Amino acid sequence: MIQTAAGALSPPPKRGNPDSYHTAKASKSSKNYTANNSKMTAKNQQFSFSELQLLMRGKWAGYHGSVGIIQHKIGKQVGCQGCGGEDRFSFQKDYPETGRWFCRQGGDPTGGDGFALLHHIYGWTPQQQLQSVADYLGLSKIDDKEKKALRLTAEKQAKELQAAIAKKDEQARRDSNVLTMLENLIDEIRHRQYLQHQAVRFNGGYIAEPTIDEVTTAQELNAAILEAYAHKRGVDYV
Ligand SMILES: [Zn+2]
Q1: Ligand 1 centre from 53 Cα, in Å?
Q2: Cα(101) to centroid of ligand 1, in Å?
Q3: What does DSSP assign to residue 57?
Q4: Span from the CA of 80 to the centroid of ligand 1 (angstroms)
């Protein structure tokens, strides 16, 4: 089973209802990673998975390396530290941002974000995952005021990410509009070519004027291009 990616925008797990995503995979080769367990207490539960995921963007390789997960080139198929094999495991393209990985797990494919990897390789519980990452980010030592500030930053980043995604969707809609209009215009020009051809064959030939439809579709294409691209200058387009 492939677990859905716990993206940076997923809602924080509900209190008293452990995020099933991070516990879904009962790895047969679970082993305790004792080097860090000593630091893990039930105390630091203030930061949720989604908040930590935001704060961890770009830091997964460094963090995973620090807890003993061997780093490979992104996309390279290698043996899995969690379940063996020779070439079943790989880091995904967005690994630096999300920690995302994939493992074929001997015919039972699995994958997930940087937290889920801690479970796949070390069998860590959600609590252990949160604690270890919070320790790495130095969040265990900071006071409540600093935590609040960080949380606000994380929320702001989440909103910015959402806005960027919405903007991208809107641009994709405009781009696809332009393509549709362009195809319509090509159809109309082909139609006129056909009319011209018929005219030469049967009517001794005359020059077919552009049809009304052809002119209309050209105008629609023009409008779609303006809508899609004219606004771009000076706009921080992601
Ligand atoms: Zn594996």
Answers
A1: 22
A2: 10
A3: T
A4: 5
List pLDDT tens digits, range 178-223.
888 888 888 888 888 888 888 777 777 677 777 788 888 888 888 8
Q: Letter for the amino acid at 44? A: N
Dist. CA 84–CA 106, nearest whole Å: 9
Residue 106 alpha carbon to ligand 1 centre in Å: 8
Handedness of CA 90, 92, 96, 98 (dihedral sign): negative
For residue 145, how many other CB atoms are within 10 A of its CB? 8
Q: Which DSSP string do the residues of 153-192 spell out, in sequence order?
A: HHHHHHHHHHHHHHHHHHHHHHHHHHHHHHHHHHHHHHHH
Does the predicted interface ipTM exceed a cut of 0.90? yes
Contact in structure between 130 and 52 (CB atoms under 8 Å):
yes
Residue tagged 């009304």 (tokens): 212
Q: Which amino acid is at 150?
A: L
Distance (Å) from CA 49 to ligand 1 centroid: 22
